[in-house]
From TrEMBL:
This is DUF1918 domain-containing protein. It holds the Pfam family DUF1918. SUPFAM superfamilies: Cell growth inhibitor/plasmid maintenance toxic component. InterPro entries: DUF1918. Residues 56-66 have a biased composition (Basic and acidic residues). Residues 44-66 are annotated as: Disordered. Residues 1-57 form the DUF1918 domain. It comes from Streptomyces achromogenes. It comes from the Bacteria. Gene3D superfamilies: Domain of unknown function DUF1918.
Length: 66
């Protein structure tokens, strides 16, 4: 997994009815865009995250095309 500052990480719900959780990458702590990442949720909470297989990266370029 590779992400850059400004990309979004989408953690998909694991059970029926659970919503996706979207956070923004504010800092890349690993080498060459690899985890861990410092992320910020919509409510302003920041944490360090090493995404698992249930996560997807939405790159900044993809977001601008939508």
């Amino acid at each position: 997994m590779h992400a850059s500052k400004g990309d979004k990480l989408v953690q998909h719900g694991r059970v029926v009815g659970q919503h996706d959780h979207v956070v923004e990458v504010v800092e890349v702590l690993g080498p060459e865009g690899t985890p861990p990442y410092r992320v910020r949720a919509e409510n302003g909470h920041e944490t360090i995250m090493s995404p698992g297989p249930d996560c997807q990266v939405r790159h900044r370029e993809e977001q601008q095309q939508r």
